[in-house]
Design goal:
Strand content: 25-35%
Shape: globular
Radius of gyration: 20 Å
Number of strands: 19
């Protein structure tokens, strides 16, 4: 089968190979025929080494498809079911799961160290899947918990977005920040996740939502999705003054994953307000804050991993909101490419021309 492979960390191009096999099928496993997958910035971060991931690997973790077969002991799904791939499944038994913080379950991360692909033919070798999945492939074998059934009326491309970006952004506003009606909000970084955070803030009743992004097309898109104004980063101080009288925003979402933008977010959060860290950053990129300002400003700093709530409930809520027309998911897909055009999709992500590119498999 075909899959897009990164041979070494630091390379900026993927090679689409046709000698890849999905590996590891057996008890507790599910084999999925991928139909659509989104390109998330975390895939780029894994490729360039910002996020730890063994190589060679197949990127992709935001996907949907149909079940081809199930291993022994699998009862939640069966062959023919339509599923979304969950890259962070909850085991249900660890301390985090028992506390109700299923998004902190580490079971899914353990999968990342086990190869779930291999090269066929002579000299076959193991290939990993990003975050234990690897959706830039025609087929993938994952733990049963990673295959979440979806209703028949949810298209594969929409389901793929729910698998990561939309759940992450919406959840940051709905679960983590719990944005209150009438609040002022700023969102720094307006790709697919940032736009989803904007939609979540709008759903919560925020009256002022300032979108911050260096790319003009993304700023224009943010306005269509609910932002009340959109500015380039250097115009944020003026927006802060105009919207909040210089006090700062009630909630600021950092959706870039860099200490510099997190520091900017902190400085634009009002005293007693909330900074929500959504972007996935590097292990060696440190945010510097003084002990005095932490004490004196009483700003809450809330990281939000995968939307900061129960993932399965978040999927269901997102589908219900989409059905009701309360959120726009179709509009997030600005580009479509086949698997063979995956490097074109990478360029669209790097230049900021795409909110989300759907790779049709």
């Amino acid at each position: 089968m075909r899959a897009a492979v990164l041979h070494e960390i630091g390379q900026d191009k993927l090679e689409v190979l046709d000698d890849i096999e999905a590996a590891g099928f057996g008890p507790g496993k599910v084999r999925i025929r991928m139909r659509a997958t989104g390109l998330c910035h975390s895939d780029l971060s894994a490729m360039n080494g910002v996020l730890p991931q063994p190589a060679p690997f197949v990127p992709g973790h935001e996907g949907a498809g149909e079940v081809l077969e199930t291993g022994g002991g699998v009862s939640r799904v069966k062959a023919g079911d339509r599923v979304v791939v969950c890259w962070l499944p909850a085991c249900g038994a660890c301390p985090a799961c028992k506390r109700g913080q299923t998004e902190l379950c580490l079971a899914g991360f353990m999968n990342a160290a086990t190869p779930n692909f291999r090269r066929s033919g002579g000299g076959s070798s193991d290939v990993f899947g990003f975050a234990g999945t690897g959706t830039f492939a025609e087929e993938v074998v994952v733990d049963a918990g990673c295959a979440v059934p979806i209703p028949d009326d949810v298209p594969f491309d929409i389901a793929a977005l729910i698998g990561c970006g939309v759940t992450t952004g919406l959840g940051a506003a709905l679960n983590t920040a719990e944005v209150e009606a009438g609040a002022s909000v700023a969102v720094i970084g307006c790709g697919g996740v940032g736009i989803s955070a904007i939609q979540g803030a709008r759903l919560r009743g925020a009256t002022e939502i300032v979108a911050v992004d260096p790319v003009a097309s993304r700023r224009e898109s943010a306005l269509r999705f609910g932002a009340t104004r959109a500015v380039a980063p250097d115009a944020l101080p003026d927006a802060k003054q105009q919207v909040t009288g210089g006090e700062g925003f009630d909630h600021v979402f950092e959706v870039v994953g860099k200490s510099a933008t997190a520091r900017t977010a902190y400085e634009n959060t009002r005293r007693g307000g909330t900074l929500v860290v959504v972007g996935a950053g590097a292990l060696d990129d440190f945010l510097q804050l003084s002990m005095f300002e932490l004490f004196f400003d009483e700003k809450r700093i809330l990281p939000s991993l995968y939307g900061g709530g129960d993932v399965l409930r978040s999927y269901e809520r997102t589908i219900a909101l989409w059905r009701a027309g309360r959120i726009d998911l179709e509009g997030l897909i600005t580009h479509r490419v086949p698997l063979a055009g995956i490097n074109e999709a990478l360029d669209q992500m790097r230049t900021g021309t795409a909110l989300r590119t759907c790779i049709e498999i």
